[in-house]
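To the wet lab folks,

You asked to see what we're planning to order before we commit. Fair enough. Below is the target structure as tokens, and below that is the sequence we designed to fit it. If anything looks off to you, flag it before the synthesis order goes out.
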């Protein structure tokens, strides 16, 4: 089985300026995910897609084997991530004249994942009915207990009505927050899919301390602190 790891990192960032090349625990942020992909030992190719020469240069220095220039239309604030991953995989296949069986994307802004998280996520695809795997953490709030929406009259109501009254969050059905850390696909599912969700989707649950996605200065500071803990994002 041939496997490719993609890491997609564009130059623009509104929440944290230049975050993908900003130094974090002694390395540029993008380098953490590149090194994790290489260290996992799972992949024939670790590829980085970016619209930035600087990001691509740094990625190559830290072990990325294929560097893919992202088209301008896939590097805007409104561009969806799935087409970016599809483009990256297709471009690497074109360059190498190869076809991959398993495609794994590591989000550049989620460096706290462990090598075992990557390996375990990929292993979940061994289920014969699985087409893709997404990662998440246990939700802090529950749509059955303490998440509300406003109805058409402006009245707050629970986001999801439970079948029976729930008096403690712990008694509500399990809910999860997607953490955008790791995505795994069978190649055919990635190529044909326009959504992350199908009957073949599987969920790999990670703890909160390995699930922080850097989207603000507060996130960056928190990840810096957690990086100092044993095992957090270490190779």
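Sequence we intend to order:
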């Amino acid at each position: 089985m041939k496997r490719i790891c993609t890491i997609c990192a564009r130059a623009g960032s509104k929440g944290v300026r230049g975050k993908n090349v900003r130094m974090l625990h002694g390395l540029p942020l993008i380098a953490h995910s590149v090194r994790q992909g290489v260290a996992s030992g799972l992949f024939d190719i670790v590829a980085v897609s970016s619209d930035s020469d600087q990001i691509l240069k740094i990625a190559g220095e830290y072990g990325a084997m294929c560097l893919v220039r992202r088209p301008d239309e896939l590097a805007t604030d409104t561009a969806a991530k799935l087409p970016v991953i599809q483009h990256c995989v297709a471009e690497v296949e074109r360059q190498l004249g190869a076809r991959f069986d398993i495609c794994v994307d590591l989000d550049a802004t989620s460096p706290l994942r462990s090598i075992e998280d990557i390996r375990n996520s990929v292993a979940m695809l061994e289920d014969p009915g699985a087409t893709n795997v997404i990662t998440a953490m246990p939700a802090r709030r529950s749509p059955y207990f303490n998440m509300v929406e406003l109805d058409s009259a402006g009245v707050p109501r629970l986001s999801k009505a439970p079948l029976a009254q729930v008096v403690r969050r712990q008694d509500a059905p399990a809910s999860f927050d997607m953490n955008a850390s790791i995505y795994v696909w069978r190649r055919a599912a990635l190529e044909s899919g326009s959504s992350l969700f199908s009957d073949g989707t599987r969920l790999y649950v990670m703890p909160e301390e390995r699930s922080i996605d850097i989207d603000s200065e507060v996130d960056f500071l928190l990840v810096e602190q957690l990086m100092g803990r044993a095992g957090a994002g270490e190779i």
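Structural context that might help your review: The chain has six helices and eleven strands. The mean pLDDT is 92.

Thanks,
Computational group
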